[in-house]
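BACKBONE GEOMETRY TOKENS:
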Amino acid sequence: MPERIDFPALLAGHTVVIEMINSGDAGLPVLTQLLRVAQPALGATGMAFVEFGPTGGRVISATGAAEWALGRPLAADDPDTVCLLAGPRVRQVRVDHLNGKLAGELSGSDLHWMVVSRAEIGGHIVGSMHALYSDDDEPGPDQQAVIGYLASCVAHMYGDQSGLPVHGDGPVVAALADGLAVVDRDGHVRLWNPAAAQVTGRSVEQALSAPLPFPLPPSGQVRDHRMPDGRWLRITSGELPGPGTLRVVTFRDITDQQRRDHDRELFVAVTSHELRTPVTVIKGYADTLTDHWESLTEVDRRQAARVIGQRANELARLVDRLLSSAAETGPGDDPATPFDLGEALRSAVGDLPADLRRRLVLLLPTDLPKALGHRPSLATVLTELTTNAGKYSAPDSPIEITASVDGQLVAFRVSDRGIGIRPEHVERAFDRFWQGESGDRRGYPGAGLGLYLVRRIVEQQNGWVSLRPRTGGGTVAEVRLPRG
């Protein structure tokens, strides 16, 4: 059995977490700090938290021996996911009793026991807390009790929606059907169906006899309203027949539709902005060659042709990104095959632009095993990761490409010494069109599509990709693929 829990250290560390929350911190930084506090106090080898949405889960925070799993998706129908989310809220299992891919990955990392607790709000699962042990000795009931308590603490953070959930809107407020309410002449709720509670997150007890949590449109009209948590509702109302002055109100969540509309507008804006620069430069140099050919020196002509070629290559890469993003293309139905990861990385490096290639430092082991996936797409993945590293670091700083094997997985990393990434941005960076702080688009041009494409390509090969701050400054992007 693991050593006794260090309760004084756990309380002291938890106090630090609460002080972080009281100081305005939220989301992933607080969650990760909670795991860092709990791991040594529990005597665990590693800790992890999985966030669940309607389509499955993803490891959004991890420490210790579980850090390799950061960013790993868990399909909703995966046997391990089904097993861990069934039965008692808090339980412990032997890793070798699991039946899915996760079991092989954990055992390959020498982890034998898992204590897991679901984080729930009103019967909805928002995530699960995991403590992992490499010892063959079975954890005790004290470990289960503490993990259950910590999962409840995280569930409370989700209830406050302070930086959580990380992905999408989460299952707590997911709309299953249109909400229906009946209000009186004073605008107070007289009827509130279950779907209304589902859409708004306001229970029947909270809603009855209280004002609507959104403005009431005039009878027969439709209004789109943004809720404080950022979701959009489409609301309609009408007079209810009868002697009273009751009104019936229907509403549904249109956040996804609004997001698609926003993405479409942003796509047009970003495309026009990003295409304009290379096109302007190409046209300018082409006009110069046409209008002043005789007066230009041979050196000037060659320089103009070189710039036109460079800008044309940039334009081609940008068009490929935009088309891939719009068409949702990737490896497609091509079957995964074993390939030499080291050789594929060296080959992909050779196709990179010269100014980026000269900064790269390859540190690849000679005995690196084969990976299982789609070799041609690796060039796109490496191009995007190294381009991203180069954009956010000094022009003369090195960019390291390393690789290793970890149990049933083979991984490679792209590490820079640039401005780094804030912990709360490590997941948002994979969103389409997202580019850090609002000023980043001006200081670091780009369409915000590279990491989005990388995650989609890698996950179609049953792998996953994650970002983390680099010790000493900078960012580490890590791609993990199944061994071939």
